[in-house]
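note to self — DONT lose this again. spent like an hour looking for the file last time. sequence + predicted structure for the chain T wanted, 122 res
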Amino acid sequence: QVQLVESGGRLVQAGGSLRLSCAASGRTFISYTMGWFRQAPGKEREFVAAINWSGGSTYTDSVKGRFTISRDNAKNTVYLQMNSLKPEDTGVYYCAAGGRLVAVSVAEYHYWGQGTQVTVSS
C-alpha cells in the first residue's frame, strides 16, 4: 500500500510558477513510477508527467519545456515544477504511483492522492 499526499496548489497569475509536492508513505517508494495528472472541470483526467525509479521522465506535449518532474527517493517525495503557467493549466493536480515502467494511462497507476487545486488567472 502507498498513501500519497499532494501540496502546493494555489491561485497564480499567468506566467507565474508553482512547485507541487507529493509525499508518499511506504518503504517501496523507489520501485514505483510516479506520475502527475490533472483534471479540469468537465474534462477527463489527463496525463501531465511521469518519472521512473532511475529518473527517466516523460511529459505531455503541452507542458514540455515548462514543467519539470523530479523525485527524491530519500524523502519519498515527487515534485512538479511548473513555470510559465497558462490559464489552460488550471485544474486539480493528482499524484499517482504506478508500476516500474513509465506510463501515461490512468489505468496504469494503482495509487492516487486526493489532489491539489491549481488555478491560473489570465
